[in-house]
Amino acid sequence: MKKVLLLCASPRPKGNTYQVLEECANTIENEGLEAEIISFVGKNIKSCLHCKKCEELNECIINDGINDIITKIKQSEGFIVGSPVYFGTARGDIMSALQRIGMVSFFNQNFLSWKVGGPIAVARRGGHTSTIQEMLMFFLYNDMIVPGSNSWNMVFGWAPGEVQDDKEGMEVIRKFGFNVATLINKIK
């Protein structure tokens, strides 16, 4: 079965970012694909050392869970990343994770190439656009396919559950999930 992996950068279990990714995953599953969310809750993701050991090992030398995520990405046709906004940017650990995933892909047959997906940002007031742009660089640099939606992939919310009140934002996420699934079904 075709699969989409969703990576949740929030340190909060079942927080707003997770809830947004759940909505996206449900839409993907309604289109006949499997969707799995991996949460950063309890993870301590480290930054890339640029040691280039991944070129010979086919995985990252740092043992903090990224290699398990890489294995699941390789087994997926789609990859979506959701991050809460911290001071106008994505959380540092998600950018560290993406940089390491990209480095391993670069040195190992560019396994990210032609995977379908994109970034999602969740915040109380602002910083969504800069966060999406920051994460989008990973997708574009790695030759991935990023479908659009009917607006930017952003949802507003502060306290857990407030994202459910952003009806327009959640509709954008459902449309994005539908577009990811539909595109995967067309090209795979």
Notes on the protein architecture:
The chain has six helices and six strands; from the N terminus they run βαβααββαβαβα. Strands 1, 2, 3, 4, 5 and 6 form a six-stranded mixed beta sheet that branches. It starts with a strand and ends with a helix. It is of the alpha/beta class and 188 residues long. The mean pLDDT is 97. β5 (116-123), α5 (128-141) and β6 (154-156) form a beta-alpha-beta unit. The radius of gyration is 15 Å and the shape is globular. The protein has one domain: Flavodoxin domain (Rossmann fold, 3-Layer(aba) Sandwich), CATH 3.40.50.360. The chain has helices at 16-30, 54-57, 66-74, 92-106, 128-141, 167-187; strands spanning 3-8, 34-39, 78-86, 89-90, 116-123, 154-156. The longest helix is centred in the C-terminal third of the chain and has 21 residues, at 167-187.
- CATH topology, which one? Rossmann fold
Q: What's the Cα radius of gyration?
A: 15 Å
Which architecture does the CATH hierarchy give at level 2? 3-Layer(aba) Sandwich
| Poorly predicted runs | none
* % residues in beta strands: 15-25%
Assigned CATH class: Alpha Beta
> What structural class do the secondary elements suggest?
alpha/beta
Coarse shape: globular
Task: Please give the count of helices.
Answer: 6
Distance N to C terminus: 11 Å
What's the number of structural domains?
1
